[in-house]
Amino acid sequence: MTEQAGREVIEKLDWVKLRKGLFVFCRRRHGLSIDDADDVSQQALCRVFNKKLPGWDPHRYPTIQEWLGSIVNGLVSNRRRNVASASERLAGESMPEGNPEFHGGGVSNAPSPPDEAAITADRARKAVSRVLEMVAGDELAEGVVMQMVAGVDTARDQAEALQVDVAKIYRAREKVTAAAAQVSKILEE
After folding, report:
1. N or C: which end of the chain has fewer CB within 10 A?
2. Same domain, yes or no, for 106 and 168?
3. Is residue 44 in some structural domain?
4. For the stretch 161-172, what's the b/e string if a residue is b when 16 or more beta carbons lie within 10 angstroms of its beta carbon?
5. Do residues 95 and 184 share a domain?
6. Which range of residues forms the domain containing residue 164?
7. What domain count does the chain have?
């Protein structure tokens, strides 16, 4: 099947029914919350039309559903892998305002004992929740936090994902950094 023929097949699909199927797949197979399942199923469908990414290969995935299921599996895997990394950055021990490590990553690769890792993960989840509470109402700042949790760390990539000018991302990141610094102080108490 040619790429053009594959695109024609894709265009004729019942996208509402397909999205519902992906949503159910996300909930049952991966145990995602309703909101997360909705986000992941939407992201998977968006990837179908992203010409920068490889399209459907019927030789590798005989049905569109198998291909979309593979995309969902990858998205969920990436989300889970990146949540811990971004959460640790938001809950870092030294998070003063303007800390360049917050903007660029700077996560230590030193292994932690298992108990400490569990405590760190719990602390990170709490930190992300508190940062989101502090920036509540500022859709762009909330979006930046969610992009970080999803593993999108550079301002340029965040601006592209959120479809705004990069200068607005920098201002939102300043607000997120200030909130993260306050949360870090609260968590130390």
Report:
1. C
2. yes
3. yes
4. ebebeeeebeeb
5. yes
6. 91-188
7. 2
Place of tokens 């199927």: 21
Tell me the pLDDT tens digit for each residue of 141-188: 988 888 887 777 788 888 888 899 989 988 998 888 888 888 877 777
The alpha carbon of 15 is separated from its chain's Cα centroid by a whole number of angstroms, namely 23
Please choose, from the candidates 56, 24, 57, the residue with its C-alpha nearest in 3D space to the C-alpha of residue 38: 24
pLDDT the model gives residue 151:
76
162 touches 169 (CB < 8 A): yes
Structure tokens at 25: 């797949």
Q: Does the predicted TM-score (pTM) go above 0.85?
A: no
CA 95 to mean position of chain CA atoms: 21
Cα-based distances in Å from 120 to 116, 125, 175, 189: 6, 9, 23, 15
Q: Are 135 and 142 in contact (CB under 8 A)?
A: yes
* Mean pLDDT estimate for the chain: 76
3-class secondary-structure state, position 154: coil
DSSP 105: -
Question: Are both 72 and 149 inside the same structural domain?
Answer: no
**pLDDT at res. 55:** 78
